[in-house]
Amino acid sequence: MNFVSTALLALAMSTDAFAAAVGKGTALQKPRWSEALRTGAIFGVIEALTPLVGWALGLAAASYVKQWDHWIAFSLLGVLGARMVYEGFKAPDEEEAEKPTRHSFWVLAVTGFATSIDAMAVGVGLAFIDVPIVPVAIAIGCATFAMVTLGVMVGRVLGNIAGKRAEIVGGLVLICIGSVILYEHLSAANA
Fold first, then answer.
1. Domain annotation for the chain: domains and CATH numbers
2. Are 109 and 38 in contact (CB under 8 A)?
3. Entry pTM
4. Which ranges constitute the DSSP H helices of the chain?
């Protein structure tokens, strides 16, 4: 794989994470760069590790990963998105009137994992064609870090525009990402 192919693959793998990060940014009270960088680092590390896991699974698990990756991503993103929509419609308590200033590590890790399932499948595919996985995984992780950091800050702007219902928008974005992943995989399987 040449540099251009690696860069394009890394960019493609980071687009789901970017969209999820925009949703996460809308759900926060004016996220700062430090939170955007933290979110980018969590997503980037997870997105870099999943192709390595996929590579390690290789031929033995290829059919399993390809068979279920879209359902896993759809379920995780759907549940997280539904929770965000529910929280957005819930009447705020006096204590909860303000949006949080940061997400918990586990919420970010689960979202990062859900958006990186496809990178695991890519790792499996790259094992078949004997591509060196480490440079590809590093490129995917770096692209995801940059895109997610930017996405959180874009979400900040959208959060200001959307007002107090920004969490609903973020939840709907996650549900849409999961649905698109499921649709793409199911329509490709039927083609």
1. 3-190 (1.20.1250)
2. no
3. 0.70
4. 3-26, 33-89, 105-128, 133-162, 166-190
* The two structure tokens encoding residue 107: 């919420």
46-55 pLDDT, tens digit each: 999 999 998 8
CA distance 58 to 50: 12
Length reported for the chain: 191
Identify the burial level of 94 via C-beta atoms within 10 angstroms of its C-beta, where 0-12 means exposed, 13-18 middle and 19 or more buried: exposed
Place of tokens 């930017």: 150
Tokens for 137, please give them.
């995984």
SS3 27: coil
Q: What is the pLDDT of residues 68-123, one digit of tens each?
A: 767 776 777 677 778 777 877 776 554 445 677 778 888 888 888 888 887 887 78
Q: How far is Cα 39 from Cα 102, in angstroms, rounded to an integer?
A: 9
Helix intervals (H) in 90-104: none
